[in-house]
């Protein structure tokens, strides 16, 4: 195949669309399926992976290699990657520990240099993960999440849609949708207003989210009491998603920083 560099090592069983480019010294193992118009740069290692179309792996990426999990016993597990992802240099994406649920990366995500997706992570679409951020095993990341550099996310935690995590934050519990988390042991410091605007969300929905945030995290009421109050009145689907996310939490929901001033409507 003319798009595969002669120094690349490809397992005979790997299925690679002829339109995909494979760079020098890359190793592609068995049980790999790669779709159309992908660009795989030099020195990458890809194992046990199903990859969609139009993904770009810059260089020295490791995708689908064994999980860093002592319970893993060489089971036949894998990574499933969607379309249009940009995977920068030295990113690691490990395959799952369990056969029935692969590590999953959706569409149009950007993983910057040296970031890490551990085994069994479930990532949605249109997320940005900045340099040297580590996402531990079994973490769930919903759509349009932004994580700054050197963030650490504890295993089994969840990060809700359109949440934003500031640089250097440690995330030990669930970050609710639409919120900003900040601090070494992160707390909520407000809503991701810019992200909501950029998403094209209706202003009335944004105002409902703002009211829900204040009631749930700034009013002093118990979280369950605040959610019940919200559900007793008409509310938009975005607020319902916020409520459902918090109700589903197993690790606990991140609290607001006590000294934080309330958000502006503007």
Q: Name the strands of the widest sheet in spatial order.
A: 3-6-9-12-15-18-21-24-26-27
> How many E strands?
27
Shape-level CATH architecture of the domain at 9-138? 3 Solenoid
Alpha-beta content class: alpha/beta
Q: What can you see in these coordinates?
A:
This protein is α/β, with parallel strands linked by helices and 266 residues long. Among the domains are: 9-138, Hexapeptide repeat proteins (UDP N-Acetylglucosamine Acyltransferase, domain 1, 3 Solenoid); 196-247, no CATH class. The chain is built from four helices and 27 strands. It has helices spanning 193-198, 203-218, 223-231, 237-247, and strands spanning 9-10, 15-16, 21-22, 27-28, 32-34, 39-40, 45-46, 49-51, 56-57, 62-65, 79-81, 86-87, 92-94, 103-105, 110-111, 116-117, 122-123, 128-129, 134-135, 140-141, 146-147, 152-153, 158-159, 164-165, 170-171, 179-182, 187-191. The strands form three sheets. It has a ten-stranded mixed β-sheet with strand order 3-6-9-12-15-18-21-24-26-27. α2 (203-218) runs antiparallel to α3. The radius of gyration is 20 Å and the shape is elongated. The termini are far apart. Residues 262-266 have low confidence and may be disordered.
């Amino acid at each position: 195949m003319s798009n595969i560099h002669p120094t690349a090592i490809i397992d005979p069983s790997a299925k690679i669309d002829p339109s995909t480019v494979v760079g020098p010294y890359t190793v592609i193992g068995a049980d790999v399926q790669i779709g159309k118009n992908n660009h795989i740069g030099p020195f990458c290692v890809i194992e046990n992976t199903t990859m969609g179309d139009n993904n770009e792996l810059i260089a020295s990426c490791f995708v689908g290699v064994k999980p860093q999990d002592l319970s893993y016993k060489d089971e036949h597990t894998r990574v499933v990657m969607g379309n249009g992802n940009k995977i920068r240099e030295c990113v690691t994406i490990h395959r799952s520990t369990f056969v029935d649920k692969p590590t999953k990366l959706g569409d149009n995500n950007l993983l910057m240099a040296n970031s890490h997706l551990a085994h069994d992570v479930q990532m949605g679409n249109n997320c940005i993960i900045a340099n040297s951020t580590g996402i531990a095993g079994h973490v769930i990341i919903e759509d349009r999440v932004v994580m700054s550099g050197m963030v650490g996310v504890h295993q089994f935690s969840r990060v809700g849609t359109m949440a934003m995590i500031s640089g250097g934050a440690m995330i030990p519990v669930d970050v609710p949708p639409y919120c900003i988390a900040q601090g070494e042991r992160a707390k909520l410091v407000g809503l991701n207003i810019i992200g909501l605007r950029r998403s094209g969300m209706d202003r009335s929905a944004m105002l409902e989210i703002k009211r829900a945030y204040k009631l749930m995290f700034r009013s002093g009421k118990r979280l369950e009491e605040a959610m019940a109050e919200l559900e007793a009145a008409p509310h938009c689907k975005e607020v319902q998603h916020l409520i459902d996310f918090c109700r589903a939490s197993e690790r606990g929901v991140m609290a607001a920083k006590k000294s934080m001033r309330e958000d502006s409507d503007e």
